[in-house]
Structure formats: structure tokens, C-alpha cells
Amino acid sequence: MGNHDKALLAEAHRARWGTFRVWLGFVAALFAAEAVLAWEVVNEFLLLAIPTTVLVAHLMHSQLLAFHEAAHGVLCPNRAANELVGLLVGKFHFNGLSLFRAVHHTHHAHLGTERDEQLWPFNDPRVPRWRRRLAALCELTFGVVYDAVEFWRAFLRKDSQVRNPRVRRRVWLELGLIVAFWGTVVGATAYFGAWKWLVVLYVLPAWAAGNMHSLRKYTEHMGMTGSTVLGLTRTVVPAGPLGRLLSFTLFNVNYHGVHHYYAAMPQRSLSRFAEDLRPGAPGEETIYPSYRAAFRAMLPSLADPRVGPQWVRTPEAPRAAPRVTPVS
Q: d(Cα 130, Cα 159) in Å, to the nearest integer?
């Protein structure tokens, strides 16, 4: 990245209430879209319900990225409010805030290497290709379930990188909140006989949102085998108004190379540093003008899904260390 003034970087890293207000706007939009979807189903406008379900799924995907901002501690300046939002949103995809934060830390600290828990098994050359293909198929079709299994596997396995006793205790407490929440939801649904509404308003959109999340994750990293941040990420800098709108609804996560350089930088600042992304080593990718272009670049890698410099036998340039926020 470019050599920036420390004051500029400090200002760019400052969390502001604007991002929190954006999140509140997306929450309101999600409730409004759910209301429209319910009205369409009641009135049997089922063809109209299809695009509305996609809209609800996209807004749920936005909530996942708000959760990601909360995990980095930058959704809003107030720590308690930031944690509360993370706890609230996390329950809906079976992932506690502390669990996500601890496992996601490995993704930033060990991007693409065999210690990157979020890219397993694609970062492990010992895993045969048929198993990696099967994992990719599962993740791209049942992303909401796969994502939960991936994080809990990283926590529960014998050699887990999540070792801090305080963090582990909090993960178990947050699991209790998740179980209590879903126990209440399922109990209320059974009592009122509202299974259809649970499926229509949550299960189907959440299934689609999980797959959107997985596809975005693959577009950002799959097939990248460089040894630097730019060699392991694809960054989308939208060229038109629709692309910028999409970027806004995704909390600017498409500026993914910048995000990996500055993990603690709020979404509002990421676009300001996109011009600093310039390839400087073999295997590094340029930025893309759209997700469609980045997706086309990623697609061939699904034949042999893998990520990380460990797949490359030839020497490469030294790895540039990303800025990482320590897990508290």
C-alpha cells in the first residue's frame, strides 16, 4: 500500500455513527421487504414473491456483513452497542460473535496459509481434489449450514487455534443464547402452527443469503495462490452507479484487498485507498470493475478448488504482512 500520513490513516480508522445508521436503514429495509413478501404470499402473488425473496436474501446478506463489521469492532464507536449488534445478528446464522471474531482472526493473520481456518480445506494440499470439490459444492449450495459447521469445527477440534480460556467461555455462553433463541422460535412456531411462515420469511431467504455469502467469499479468494495480500485477494472497484449501490449494500467489502491490508478500517474508508492497490509481484491480480468480471476470473478454479502459496512449488516474493487487529 501507499505511504500515507499517519494522521490520515488514524482518521480513516476512526469508527463513526454513520455506519451504524446505515445498518439501521438496512434493518428497516429488511423488515419492509419481509412485509411485502408476506403480503404477496397471503394474496398468492407467487411469481412476485420470487424477486422479493431474492431482495430479502440480499438484505440478509447485508446483515451478515454488518456482523462482520461488528466483529472487527467498527460498526459504531460505542463498544457496547457494537457488541450488542453482533450478538443480535449472529443468532440468525448460528454463529456467535466471539466465535466468528476468533476464527476470522486466523483469516487475517494467516491469509491463505494452512492456518487460515476460513479457507479450509482449500488451503490444505493434503486434502484430495474430490473432497475439495465436494466441500465447494456443499458451501455453494448450503452456505448457511456449511458456514456454521466450518466455524464450530475450528473451535471444537483438538488442535483449535482458539485457546484463550476467556474467549472459549464466552463462545459457550453465546452458544447458550443461540440455543435459547432458536428454542423459543421453534416453540412459538409449533404452538401457533406457523411453519409455513418460518419457511417463507426465514428459511428460504436465509438459504439464498448463505449461498450469496459463499459465492462472494469464493470470488474474493478462490484460486488465488500468491504469497502477498494482492496475490490472495480479488478487489472489485465498481465502475458504474449500480455497482456502487451494490458495494454500499455490502458495506464495501468488495474493496477486499484494502480490507486485508487494514483489517480495522471501517467500510466507509475502504474505497479511499483502492487506488493504492497495484500489482508488484508474480501472481498478484489487478482490481476488477465488477463482481461479474471477478467471478469470471474465479470460475475456472472450481475445477480444482484451492487457495494459498503452499500449492505453488516455485519460490515467490516475500509475503507482505497485513495489518491485523488482535483478538481481545
A: 25
Distance CA(223)–CA(195), nearest Å, equals 40
Which residue from 236, 260, 256, 259 is spatially nearest to 246, judged by alpha carbons? 236
* C-alpha cell, 228: 502477498
Domain boundaries, the chain: 6-225+236-311
Q: Are 294 and 234 a contacting pair, CB within 8 Å?
A: yes
Q: In angstroms, what CA-CA distances link 184 with 86, 89, 97, 181, 193? A: 20, 16, 20, 5, 14
pLDDT mean over 146-151:
94
Tell me the C-alpha distance between 132 and 121, whole Å: 6
Beta-ladder partners of 262:
323
* Predicted confidence (pLDDT) per residue in 105-118, tens digit: 999 999 999 999 99
For residue 301, the number of C-alpha atoms closer than 13 Å in the C-beta half-sphere is 21
Is residue 207 pLDDT above 80, yes or no? yes
Burial (Cβ within 10 Å: 0-12, 13-18, ≥19) of residue 177? middle
